[in-house]
Write a structure and sequence with these properties.
298 residues, 5-stranded mixed beta sheet
């Protein structure tokens, strides 16, 4: 009986060892399959009815489908790039001519009703120009035609330049625009980030009533530098705060204001390309604060 028990234990141990070895060989084979797939050199090697052969066949089908999808994505991206270039080229001259002739008409001695029509013509042409330019910028960012190139830069100089550029519009609307002194640096693309910050400031000015204020301030942290654009506008409903960064989204409460719904979308895309992000805090009747976070290091 003892010998039978010993033989049974040895047999069980042998089965366990065999299963372990077979599992290890299978795992080693699958590990090699994945390494080959990463290098782009995978080819099925087991042509039988085993589970390993089935896994190889599925992996082969997946890689083929992924390669096809990647090729199609590259083709679609190339088409979008071509379309963007065509739109930019074909619309630039007609829009410039519309603005030119509208300006010439505005300089003439026209009846009051005609002068109003010329004003509307100019406003709509400018809106079309802004829309095309914004779509081209967004498309170029998304397709990689234009790459954001972050580098160490002065945040104070960034906020000062963006505020100075927005001062004429703030004065025209009767909004007090203030930039608090800042001594901080971060890692960002100065040109594109100024556009993103400018969009946030322009948006704040646009929706702040005359007599209100917009304040730009900087708060440095260990990993990020935060730029706040705080306004005294009407605020944003909570259920809309997650949607305002969507492409072409505009709140029903501000449909009468000029805009196409691309400014905040572009700002978010630029922030992400810099390795940062944008947050918004707002209360109805209490104004809004848009916070642009820029990384301190690469």
């Amino acid at each position: 009986m003892i010998w039978i028990a010993v033989i049974a234990v040895l047999a069980a141990a042998g089965v366990i060892i065999y299963d372990r070895l077979r599992l290890r060989r299978t795992m080693d084979t699958m590990d090699k399959m994945l390494d080959d797939a990463i290098r782009g050199a995978f080819q099925p090697a087991h042509f039988d009815e085993s589970r390993l052969s089935a896994v190889e066949a599925k992996l082969k089908h997946y890689l083929d489908a992924s390669g096809t999808s990647a090729a199609r994505l590259a083709e679609d991206r190339a088409r979008v790039q071509g379309l963007i270039a065509d739109i930019s080229h074909q619309t630039k001259t007609p829009i410039a001519n519309l603005l030119l002739y509208a300006g010439l008409l505005a300089d003439r001695d026209l009846p009051e009703d005609c002068r109003g029509c010329v004003g509307q013509l100019t406003a709509q042409a400018e809106k079309l120009q802004f829309l095309i330019e914004s779509m081209v910028k967004a498309g170029r960012l998304e397709t990689g035609v234009i790459a954001v190139q972050p580098r160490p830069a002065d945040v104070g100089a960034l906020t000062e330049a963006a505020v100075q550029a927005a001062q004429p519009e703030a004065a025209r609307r009767g909004v007090q625009l203030t930039s608090l002194p800042a001594e901080a640096s971060a890692y960002f693309d100065p040109k594109w980030t100024q556009e993103a910050l400018g969009n946030l400031i322009d948006n704040a000015i646009k929706y702040t009533p005359a007599g209100g204020s917009v304040t730009v301030s900087v708060t440095p942290y260990e990993l990020f530098c935060r730029i706040d654009v705080a306004d005294t506008g009407p605020g944003i409903p909570e259920d809309e705060q997650a949607r305002i960064f969507e492409r072409f989204y505009r709140s029903p409460a501000v449909r009468d204001e000029q805009g196409v719904g691309l400014g905040l979308y572009l700002a978010r895309e630029i922030a992400a390309a810099n390795g940062g992000y944008i947050k918004v805090t707002s209360r109805l009747g209490k104004g809004s604060t848009f916070s642009l976070f820029l990384p301190k290091t690469q």
